[in-house]
């Protein structure tokens, strides 16, 4: 094998893997968007076959030989090619440890889990979901043991979403947050509460769709390469490369800000994906490097941009134009306060910036204990409700708005949740750095997102998966990650908001 | 290789092919429904790679050996397995004659053609479409030469959609139709014309969507396995098996019957696919046997059922409920007459039963001449317009409503159009046969589609591709196909309608 040929083969192999990813991602997306409800077994059949094909492709002798040859000739590869080979070998070595029949069974299980979760949520029936969720957790425990027998199983999954993350670091990070957030929430509870009535009312979905379109254009999302659809749970997905990205939202007719912030949040993910360097398309470098960094971009847009006073003032005329009757007695300041009302609540995706991390901590605790075999899936709802009471002080009236609310477990995204909190913290530190050279407030007043997007593209987006999450972050920040920047931001923001 | 193992391998191979078909059909469907408009190159990349994978699977040594082994042991196979092996070998032998790089190039070309056609139709710009359409026709000429060098190229494609069909038979069939239809149209033109004003007005799309849902339920389409979406051009597609079927329609706010008959037409296709025997799923026997038979089912539902007096009377109360203002001055009889108004028109999919076949003849003539190199793609619009004048007596005002109206050429469905006319004729003969044992009029009066669907399932739907089109048809009819049954039906219907 010549090095020249091996490099060509590397790109061809990457493209082939991207094509399989395109197909499987689209089949999943179809299931979440427009598929008739009796068709999940049909998707399961196809996904298990395509899963087997891509497993064979990835772990086949030819592939392994190629990547090992390139790895042993690392010094003759570009930085990009080195990283591609590293990432592909890492994935393949994990995959090789999962027996083929188990890998295929997993594809089928995930289609079933997604389908059952939808029905269980719809009918508020955890008992329906329980057996399949148990299978999912058992499967993920087994995978961790196969892939990294020397590692704690939950650490394996945390590290899977954010290289370097483990329970010890999570515990420390969450302790830092808790020490600031809990007293803040207490102080706020003793103050007069914000009137958020302006966000409730009757907001026809077709008008909300117009608002989504406006928000996406405002953020300068390339709508020729990014579509928007409606799903039970909002998410972002790419098909084959960053040239085709889709985001989804969920409209609530009685509350227009729920979808508004979903669109901004998912739009933040989309911008990250869409702005990877073009030459990384169809390679392992395409798209974001970790869920922590990904969430830093989505939470950056959702909260630091979307919940700022300047942004709310910027979009308020459009809101008023779309909902003249509903908004006639309200000002931009009313809306700004309403979308920043700190109040323990049931639904994570609609939580305010301050209480949000407590929602994450509930999930983190539960996952940790399930992986430590200290908690059974059967007891999840009870424990969920108990922790909501303990951390947020609220009673969970049903599982639909409780343990069944998120799609992560049915989607196999276990160990993912801490990424949201980490991302929120990364985002604030990135904003602080950005403000050294970009007058962000001024940009928002003018509705000019170019300088903001350019900064993020220069420091984060363009690199795709070229660097590890911490390399990328430290390169952008010029310093180490420091969660107190986040807690200081929260303290400052909410002290002002509530005159604490 | 043991026969037992070979049979197992046959089903595994079929399932794998079905999985690739699922993926590629869904990627195409995504492009036609919800994909952002700048993403077609991304789909082209994936489709060309998956195309190469399935080409290699289909033509690989292992596959060919397996099928040839089974073929040489035909006598030990069930009737079903014999047919599966026959159909798969036939496809593979054709595929083997197309060089791999050409096969891959074709996948990319078809994505491009679909994309360019959409834009060309939108902007009424045939010049934009011309170069890619030329490539498509050239490609299909080449494929015919590779696959059947001994055959006339256009005959190859006619036979591809309807086994046994060729130009000579088409010419004869169309001559039979023309000899009855043309004088009928002339007689009608001398009579007072039908007032069809009840179908025009302002019909909000969301109300039309409710109507679609009602129509699909009425036809007893299994909505758990059949979805409905909106596209530029209505079509029916299956994903991997008959367990997941999708139909599409196109709503016109100013005319509610356009989508109404699209839904019924595509619903007829869907019923055929959905009701294949369950054990044929994921094999070459799944789904309809030919486009002629497929169109016989869709045109059966659209015209023989949908445009009958009894059916219009059946659905009229629902139409009135959805559009009370628009319909307040009209009766079911007005609507029945309006949807049967025979009048030369521009758009094939909206043509009445009588003039419809003339639209087909225009397309047939043009394809025939292009394949005979007697007509260039460049001259297509001019020739299209000339033939519309000659056959239908009307002037085509623009290419959007002329040569750009159909998606068939951009979709590579060349030689397909005669299937519509054949299917229309098959359908009438099937109805006549059905009426020997089923009181169809009575069923429609009661809105009871069970006996109709049961008859079609028993005689047509369940068999999938087990029989050749003519075997299936003759088995159902107990006699040979006779196009004069169709022309007699037209003469009878329109003589009564217009008091000729």
Structure summarized in a few sentences:
By secondary structure, the first copy, chain A, is mainly alpha-helical. The first copy, chain A, contains 20 helices and three strands.
How would you characterize the overall build of this protein?
2 copies of one chain form a homodimer. With 500 residues, the first copy, chain A, is mainly alpha-helical. Helix content of chain A is 63%, strand content 4%. Chain A contains 20 helices and 3 strands. In chain A, strands 1-3-2 form a 3-stranded mixed β-sheet. In chain A, helix 1 (3-32) runs antiparallel to helix 2 (40-59), helix 6 (126-147) packs across helix 7 and helix 9 (205-218) packs parallel to helix 10. Chain A starts with a helix and ends with a helix. At the A-B interface, helix 1, helix 2, strand 1 and strand 3 of A face helix 1, helix 2, strand 1 and strand 3 of B.
Give the termini separation of chain A. 69 Å
Mean of residue pLDDT of chain A? Answer: 96
Q: What's the story with the biggest beta sheet of chain A?
A: 3 strands, mixed
The whole-angstrom Rg of chain A is 23 Å
Uncertain runs of chain A are none
Q: Give the assembly state of these chains.
A: homodimer
Number of strands of chain A: 3
User: For the largest beta sheet of chain A, what order do the strands appear in spatially?
Assistant: 1-3-2
Which series of helices and strands of chain A comes N to C?
HHHHHHHHHEEEHHHHHHHHHHH
Overall structural class of chain A, as computed from helix and strand content, comes to mainly alpha
From the spread of the alpha carbons, the general shape of chain A counts as: globular
């Amino acid at each position: 094998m010549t090095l020249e040929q091996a490099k060509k083969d590397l790109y061809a192999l990457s493209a082939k893997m991207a094509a399989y990813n395109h197909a499987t991602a689209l089949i999943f997306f179809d299931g979440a968007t427009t598929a008739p409800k009796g068709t999940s077994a049909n998707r399961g059949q196809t996904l298990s076959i395509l899963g087997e094909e891509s497993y064979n492709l990835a772990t086949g002798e030819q592939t392994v030989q190629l990547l090992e040859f390139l790895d042993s000739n690392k010094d003759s590869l570009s930085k990009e090619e080195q990283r591609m080979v590293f990432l592909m070998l890492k994935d393949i070595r994990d995959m090789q440890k999962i027996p083929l029949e188990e890998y295929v069974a997993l594809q089928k299980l995930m289609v079933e889990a997604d389908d059952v979760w939808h029905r269980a949520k719809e009918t508020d029936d955890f008992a329906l979901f329980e057996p399949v969720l148990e299978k999912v957790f058992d499967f993920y425990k087994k995978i961790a043991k196969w892939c990294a027998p020397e590692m704690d199983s939950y650490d394996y999954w945390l590290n899977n979403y954010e290289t370097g993350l483990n329970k010890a670091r999570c515990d420390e990070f969450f302790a830092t947050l808790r020490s600031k957030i809990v007293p803040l929430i207490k102080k706020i509870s003793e103050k007069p509460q914000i009137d958020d009535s302006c966000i409730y009312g009757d907001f026809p979905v077709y008008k909300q769709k117009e608002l989504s379109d406006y928000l996406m254009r405002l953020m300068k999302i390339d709508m020729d390469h990014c579509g928007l659809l409606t799903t039970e749970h909002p998410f972002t997905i790419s098909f084959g490369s960053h040239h085709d990205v889709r985001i989804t939202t969920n409209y609530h007719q009685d509350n227009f800000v729920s979808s508004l912030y979903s669109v901004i949040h998912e739009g933040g993910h989309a911008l990250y994906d869409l702005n990877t360097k073009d030459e990384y398309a169809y390679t392992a470098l395409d798209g974001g490097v970790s869920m922590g960094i990904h969430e830093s971009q989505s939470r950056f847009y959702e909260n630091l941009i979307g919940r700022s006073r300047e942004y709310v003032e910027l979009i308020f005329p459009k809101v008023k134009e779309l909902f003249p009757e509903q908004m006639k007695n309200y000002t931009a300041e009313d809306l700004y306060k309403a979308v920043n009302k700190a109040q323990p609540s049931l639904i994570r995706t609609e939580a305010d910036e301050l209480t949000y991390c407590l929602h994450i901590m509930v999930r983190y605790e539960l996952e940790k204990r399930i992986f430590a075999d200290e908690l059974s899936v059967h007891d999840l709802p009870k424990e969920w409700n108990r922790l909501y009471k303990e951390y947020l002080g609220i009673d969970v009236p049903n599982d639909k708005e409780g343990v069944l609310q998120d799609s992560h477990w049915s989607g196999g995204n276990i160990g993912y949740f801490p990424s949201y909190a980490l991302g929120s913290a990364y985002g604030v530190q990135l904003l602080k750095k950005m403000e050294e050279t970009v007058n962000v407030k001024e940009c928002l007043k003018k509705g000019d997102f170019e300088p903001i997007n350019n900064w993020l593209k220069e420091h984060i987006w363009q690199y795709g998966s070229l660097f590890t999450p911490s390399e990328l972050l430290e390169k952008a920040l010029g310093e180490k990650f420091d969660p107190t920047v986040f807690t200081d931001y929260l303290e400052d923001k909410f002290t002002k908001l509530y005159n604490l």
